[in-house]
Amino acid sequence: MKEFKFKGIKFLIVVVILFTILFLFDFANSSLAVSKFFDIIWKLLPIFIFIIILTTLINYFLNPKKIMKHFGEESGKRGVFYALFGGIMSHGPMYAWYGMLDDMRKHGLKDGLIVTFIYARAVKLPLLPFMIEIFGILFTVVINIYIVIFAILQGKVMDIVIGKKLNKKEKQMAEKILACDNDICLKKDECERFRLFKAGAKECKTNSGTETKGCGKFIKISK
Amino acid sequence: MKKQNNQPTIKKSFFQATKSFISITPMILAVVGLVALFQTYVTPTMLSNLFGFSPLTDTFVGTFIGAISSGNGALSFVVADGLEEQGVSLYAISAFILAWITLSFVQIPAEVSVFGVTFTTYRNILAIFSTILISYLTVITIMALK
Predict the structure, then answer these.
(1) Where in the sequence is the domain holding A91, given as residue range(s)?
(2) Shared-domain flag, residues A132 and A87
(3) Cβ pair A76, A113 in contact under 8 A
(4) What percent of chain A has pLDDT over 70?
(5) What would the pLDDT profile of A87-114 be if each residue is shown by its tens digit?
(6) Which of A77, A85, A95, A187 is the most exposed place for a label (fewest CB within 10 A)?
(7) A8–chain B Cβ distance below 8 A for any pair
(8) Cβ separation of A142 and B142 shorter than 8 Å?
(9) What is the arithmetic mean of pLDDT over A178-189?
(10) Average pLDDT taken over every residue of chain A
(11) How many CB atoms lie within 10 A of CB A165?
(12) Are residue A201 and residue A163 in the same domain, yes or no?
């Protein structure tokens, strides 16, 4: 079973220390901040529940191979469309979506599509009437069209930049080892062979590997 | 729907999703904590006082202020509306709104812990450049269309 690990513990400790210091020197404002903290959490609860349900559905309906097909290296324009659509339709703060994106990334979601998803979130559908009322329809339409264009461009640039970095490492690794496409193996997320498969390394074979016994060909992902 | 081989059960999928979400709760709590502190100590009036230079400087100020600010996107519109009434250029206002929505320095530690330093660095640099470019292109396009 994959080891469970909390993310952001150090960050949380720093924030708790910050609150403690502020409590000592500015009790009134820090109490107000604590009250705001609970207000925000309360408002976010429905979004958290929605994200858990959505992640459940993705885990259920989209296995790693399907994720690779729709959001991986070969996803093409369809992947960009899904990322744009998902970004525009998603609600709530970005950090609430990190868990789901991280899960999908481990199963082959391209970095470029994450970038497109994140930037496309700047198109705030529920706030459009409010934006039109304040800044006018022309400004609203023009800025949102540019947001969509730049969301796509950023994704493309990210893929080129990350791809170049990956290719250099991969060339060195691929000369030495074979990739492995065994998505049942529970060690796959930690294995360099599976990472190479996700990155589209040329030579590939399926090594076995189970929960209790590895395939014997496991290679830890290089830093 | 017919269940395929290797497809997890809905119960297992829910368990995985919940586990994945619980693993990022410290990060979410930390970000919400910082957002609460920011909303308590930094008021819209304080932000407005930072503008009022040349359009170019205001654009950079707008990008920076938007990036360090946090909160609901609607709040950025209200602040931007106030800035417009004060005569701040549309370049700066566009940059401010975009940076508020797309960049959030408060969230950077969380983004690093999930996606890593390389991804976070590239994404934020791309977003900063895009924000400045979009704000200029938006104003130029509006001027051309009017």
Answers:
(1) 74-175
(2) yes
(3) no
(4) 81
(5) 888 777 788 788 888 878 877 788 899 9
(6) A77
(7) yes
(8) yes
(9) 77
(10) 80
(11) 11
(12) no
What integer is the mean pLDDT of A13-31? 92
Q: In which band, very low, low, confident or very high, does the pLDDT at A35 lie, cut at 50, 70 and 90?
A: very high
Whether residue A181 sits in one domain with residue A171: no
Tokens 């470029």 locate to A112
- Among the partner-chain residues B26, B93, B118, the one whose CB lies closest to the CB of A6 is B26
Give the three-class secondary structure for A218: coil
Q: What pLDDT band is residue A167 in, cutting at 50, 70 and 90? A: low
- Is A21 contained in some domain? no
Rounded Cα gap, residues B14 and A54, in angstroms: 9
Distance CA A48, CA A40 (A): 12
Which neighbouring-strand residues pair with A179? A204
Burial readout B79-97 (b: 16 or more C-beta within 10 A, e: otherwise): bbeebeeeebbbbbbbbbb
Q: How does DSSP classify residue A220?
A: B
> Which residues on B lie below 8 Å from A14 (Cβ)?
30
Record: contact A139-B118, CB cut-off 8 A:
no
Would you say residue A194 lies in a domain?
yes
Residue contact A95–B142, C-beta within 8 A: no
